[in-house]
Amino acid sequence: MALNPHGNSAGVSRYNQLATIFRRRIESGHWAVGERIPTVVELAEEWGVAPATVRQALGMLEEAGLIERFRAKGTFVTRRPQQDLWCEVPTDWNGLLLSSPGVEVEILSGETGARPPHVEHTVGALAQTYRHWRRRHSRDGRPYYLGDAYIEERWAARITDEQLAANTTLRILKDMPGLHLATVHQTLTIVTADVELSGDLDIPLNSPIARVLRTAVDADGVVVFVGDGMYRGDVVRLDISVTA
């Protein structure tokens, strides 16, 4: 088997391609936790690459804590990536109001007189002006979420930094006296980290990102909140109950 240098993998280094393949083998259980994986020479022959390329790929998995290499014994799987999937993206109203436990929130920036650059959902009418906040969420010192919130200025003026650091935006708005949220829309897509996101979330370039776009409309049909959130893909899980 050989790596395909064309198609969707064009421009991606061979060791990055291999690291993705090896990671998927661990995720699927093909390489089980505690199991010794094939040697560097065997993997190089399987994929038609130089042993140095395999070592680079395995080095990425070792940095992620998925494998451990022992001299004269071989390389062993230490854990599956799914063990890190602790950050659940909410799919219902109650979940949207809950803050994740043990989370530290940084307010990176704030500005008045802003306008959302993009509104995903064609619902409601935009207000004259919004206040914009950018926040970064971390757990155990590890950043996992970067979010931009645009809140209609008349409501944003009542919000304190303490509220922003302790609550989800929708929880703040739901509890706002005089404000009734009529509809809330949410869309999740999978994108990849650019240079800016790579630095802000401390992840490799082109890592998977779960992008969540949210729009809230009040009883008068005015868009009171536009959210654009980026979750690092290696900690996110999405659970949806399906009923027949």
Outline the secondary-structure elements:
Elements: H1 14-28, H2 40-47, H3 51-63, E1 67-70, E2 74-77, E3 87-88, H4 93-96, E4 103-114, E5 125-126, E6 130-139, E7 142-152, H5 153-156, H6 161-166, H7 169-174, E8 181-192, H8 195-201, E9 208-218, E10 222-232, E11 236-237
Parallel strand pairs: 3-11, 5-10
Antiparallel strand pairs: 1-2, 4-6, 6-7, 7-10, 8-9, 9-10
Helix pairs in contact: 1-3, 2-3
Written description of the protein model:
The chain is α+β, with helices and mostly antiparallel strands. The protein has eight helices and eleven strands. The strands form three sheets. Strands 4, 5, 6, 7, 8, 9 and 10 form a seven-stranded mixed β-sheet that branches. It has a two-stranded antiparallel sheet with strand order 1-2. A hairpin with a 2-residue loop joins strand 6 and strand 7. The radius of gyration is 22 Å and the shape is elongated. It starts with 13 loop residues before the first helix and ends in a 7-residue tail after the last strand. 24% of the residues are buried. The model is unreliable at 6-11 (pLDDT under 50).
H/E topology pattern: HHHEEEHEEEEHHHEHEEE
Number of helices: 8
Share of residues in helices: 25-40%
Instruction: Count every beta strand, where a strand is a DSSP E run of 2 or more residues.
Output: 11
Kindly summarize this structure in a few lines.
The protein is of the alpha+beta class and 244 residues long. The protein is built from eight helices and eleven strands.
Feature tags:
elongated, 7-stranded mixed β-sheet, 244 residues, alpha+beta, two-stranded antiparallel ribbon
